[in-house]
Amino acid sequence: MELEDLTPDFVDGWANGTVDKLSPRVLEPLYSGNLAVNVASQSENNLLRGRLVARLVADARDAPAPMLLKRVDKTLPPSAVGISWITVDNYCHMHYDITLSGMGLTDKKYQLSLDLLPMIAPGAPVITHILDEFNGNQVEGSPTETLPKEELVRLDAGVVFINIKEKTTKTTLLSATLRELQVPATCLSHITDNNVPTLSLDSDVAENGACFHERKFYQEGDQWTTSDPCTMCYCQNGNAKCDTSACPEIVCPTSFKIKVPGECCPICSNSTTSQESNTSAPRGCTFGGMFYTAGSRFHPFLIPNGFDLCTECHCDSTLLEVKCTRQSNEKKCCKHCVDTSKAMIDSENGTYVSDLSTTHVVVSKDAQSIVSYKTPQQVLSEGGCKNPSNPNKPYENGQKYHPWIASLGEYKCVTCKCKNGSQSCERQRCTRAICHKMFKPRHNGMQSTTNEFCCSQQQCKHFRRHHRARNS
């Protein structure tokens, strides 16, 4: 029996209107569950039909709008879809109500989860929060646990994906981007004076150990070249530390100097080399994870000091080997050395020649002498640190070591320590006693080798000037 004709409100496949003053003949079947909406055509009386059923709703329906979960797994029927209602109350509890349709069998086991990102960017750290596991086509819940601070921040100002996954295979079936979710200001720890909550991206990322630089995320220990090929950075304790290098001098006519795209420093080239580069794969060396064109000269980038401007490396055009040499004239290289009071200072090691078998390998000699009976997984689970060169020999928690730089040797002027999964490195301080040892052989008419010490001539001159000022 037809009770109301809604055809006047039906235009271009869309009906929108209001039925005022429901009479008892409509209310009675509505409350009993016998009221239905029917769509008919000239040739079909029951083209679409749906019964209106009363259903109790949870606090999740306080959300400003529902989210449509769309099909991700193309093996699902095209009709597979879901509706999600999600909200956060004043007690920082999340409420959710999910209804699925067109999924096929109702006895399947699903997993409901959230993926929270600070923003859409390559390498962004993801927090995955599993809300529920359920059977059938409907799930709702109101967990009593308060959401962690970092999750509340990302819910309010980040990017959140809600996913329906198959429980056994973890395959994502349906997904949606969660929008218009407003987190109460009382749940956000960082509130400004005008009570407007803001996203503290730096602290949120730092807590996850990632570094955010030039719209991209990097993990702890990562090393990369910026948009400026002369600037390199590394990620330490959630902070990106960068240094810019000057180019070593090259001796050749100006017309023979060329700049290879993506590299910092020019190289000397003749017409034969240029023609070869146009007809074959680029020839070069790999050092520190970076590729350098054959014939290029550069300063090595060494964590945690940055570019060592007093050491010059060369990619041999014939052997394709990297050879690094410490400059003998320290005054010449220190025209460009950064001040020792800054975070990144030049290294003070001697002369080194590369070994292709250990190119861009960083290990500790101390670690090599230790015979560990523990598996790498056990060492890492006990607070050890990853060994970039040899994953099978991680550093143990509490272990101290000097970094071993490929083609440069052991840096005894820098001591690193592994503590609870994080490694920190410190440079040996330059003292008056060390400077005295450096120049004592010279006073006795003997040859002095400053490469054995961790002080530069510039630093020792500072001590001597200070000593003279006190005596005057």
Task: Note down, in words, how this protein is organized.
The protein has 472 residues and is of the alpha+beta class. The strands form eleven sheets. An eight-stranded antiparallel β-sheet has the order 9-8-11-12-5-6-7-10, covered by helices on one side. A four-stranded antiparallel β-sheet has the order 22-25-26-27, with no helix packed on it. It is elongated and about 110 Å long.
Biggest sheet: strands, sense, closure? 8 strands, antiparallel
Count of separate DSSP helical elements? 9
Reading side by side through the largest sheet, how are the strands ordered? 9-8-11-12-5-6-7-10
Strand content: 25-35%
Q: What is the structural class?
A: alpha+beta
Q: Count all strands and give the number.
A: 33
What oligomeric arrangement do these chains adopt? single chain
What would the principal axes of the Cα set say about the shape?
Answer: elongated
Mean pLDDT: 74
Termini Cα gap = 114 Å
Question: How much helix, percentage-wise, in residues?
Answer: 10-25%
Q: Which class of the domain at 59-187 in CATH terms?
A: Mainly Beta
CATH architecture of the domain at 59-187: Sandwich
CATH topology (fold) name of the domain at 59-187? Immunoglobulin-like
